[in-house]
Amino acid sequence: MARLCPYLDTINRNVLDFDFEKLCSVSLSHLNVYACLVCGKYFQGRGKNSHAYTHSVQVDHHVFLNLLTLQFYCLPDNYEVIDASLDDIKYVLKPTFNAENIAAMDENARISRALDSSTYYPGIQGLNNIKHNDYMNVLYHALAHIPPIRNFFLRDESYAYVKPQPGDQLFALAQRLGELFRKLWNPRNFRCHVSPHEMCQAAVLASKKRFQITAQGETVDFMTWLLHSLHKGLKGTNKPDSSIISKTFQGSMKIHSRKLPMTDNPVEIKRLMQQKEYQKTTTAMPFFFLTLDLPAAPLFKDEFDANFIPQVPLLELLSKFDGTQEKEYKTYKDSCMKRFELTRLPPYLILVIKRFTKNNFFVEKNHTIVNFPIGDLDMAEFLSADPEVQDRHPHTKYNLIANIVHDGQPGAGKGTYRVHVFQKGAKQWFELQDLHVTNLLPQMITLAEAYIQIWELDKSS
Q: Which helix (H) or strand (E) holds 39?
């Protein structure tokens, strides 16, 4: 029977934290877990022999919340509490968004206020670095500011069509990402930061511990795995537009390649060139991102006994995909020449600047600064000259919306990651590095060692 509770004034909202895994703090079970609203700890059950009941009697804490059903109970009397003043706690545990809320996010941004009077913009909140998961955090922030991805994951109904098998960890990954996005964009948070613990745990399990919270990895490797895992978890197929991931990021290209003879003998070369495997081949290939190769860093120091850091324009790196430049690619057994020709541009283009090279002994980082515009990056000159391809692309200009940066030396734990994101509602750039959030002038973005960039197709031009 529901009734008023005399203990509601004992609830301490400052200690409530629903970001961590929903496990009983005594039995470590995830079944039938309740949160004590006085101390914030999780306990299992509410019967007379349960850990929650024992806790209520021992320390005189009485108000509990069922983390699954969102119902409030008073223990040890064991009656349900219904009170409108508790709705804010429900919303922090499980934020919900309707189509109207989502449509207004990019139009205007209202500043929200946390319990400690600190202010934040929804979507611009620090993510806790549990140990060495900064390489994950920057990607979560970047994806949370891509409107189609954000809008899809903000609503449970978007992926209700998926019927997962029991223990489907890839679908659980998509669910956890949706929960993280809803917390990031929650305008009524008690704190101005969020912990990605549950999402990181899901990533560790789904990747079979390839990516860890306790050891820093590479964001590009994690991004490649995450995008393909989400695509597969949402029942995406090889067909374009089969999931929200492929609709947003998938483009296509033609790869023209020819194998090179591994000999200097002209007669042998002529004989080999007659064989089928040495003929030119063209294959169509989909992509989620484009990898850009940096020119080799200078070997010698300048006259001031300092290493000279070169600069290179982004358009020069993109010329790899203009369909005319050939480059040699070597493997341990053969060598071939390849050139790339773009045939379909995605709505959101991910560019990866290849800064790290590995050999048998160590990882080396190229510190070359890439000069790029913040907006109006025109990809028209890199599209295939085929008239049919040109007709399919009336819009070819892109604007930058996220820029991931790696600072420091290569190697696990030696460098740090940060991300620049554009908050459309506030019309402002922000820099996020774990819990640190700062405003940023657009001119400062180009000075950093860009690693991953996400560009949005401008359909208004």
A: none
| pTM of the shown model | 0.91
Which of 377, 424, 444 lies closest to 150, judged by CA?
424
Q: What is the pLDDT of residues 10-57, one digit of tens each?
A: 999 999 989 888 999 999 999 999 999 999 999 999 989 999 999 999
Question: Residue 20: its pLDDT value, please?
Answer: 85
What are the residue ranges of helices labelled H in 235-281? 244-249, 266-273
Q: What's the count of helices (H) and strands (E) in the chain, helices before strands?
A: 13, 25
Q: Is 7 helix (H, G, I), strand (E, B) or coil?
A: coil
Q: Which two tokens stand for residue 235?
A: 């029942």
* Of the candidates 2, 168, 25, 160, the residue with the CA atom closest to the CA atom of residue 78: 2
Measure the CA dihedral 266/272/277/281, to 10°.
Answer: 40
Residues in the chain: 461
DSSP one-letter string for 145-213: TSHHHHHHHT-GGGGTT--PPTT-HHHHHHHHHHHHHHHHT-TT-SSSEE--HHHHHHHHHHTTTSS-S
* Alpha helices for 216-294 (secondary structure H): 219-233, 244-249, 266-273
CA-CA distance, 150 to 421, in Å (whole number)? Answer: 14
> DSSP label at 383?
B
| Cα 414 from Cα 31, distance rounded (Å) | 40
Contacts of 245 (CB under 8 A, 6+ apart): 149, 227, 230, 231, 234, 236, 288
Q: Determine contact, residues 289/249, Cβ cutoff 8 Å.
A: yes
Cβ 229 vs Cβ 206: under 8 Å: yes
Q: Mean pLDDT across the stretch 425-447?
A: 92
Question: Which tokens go with 67?
Answer: 């983390």
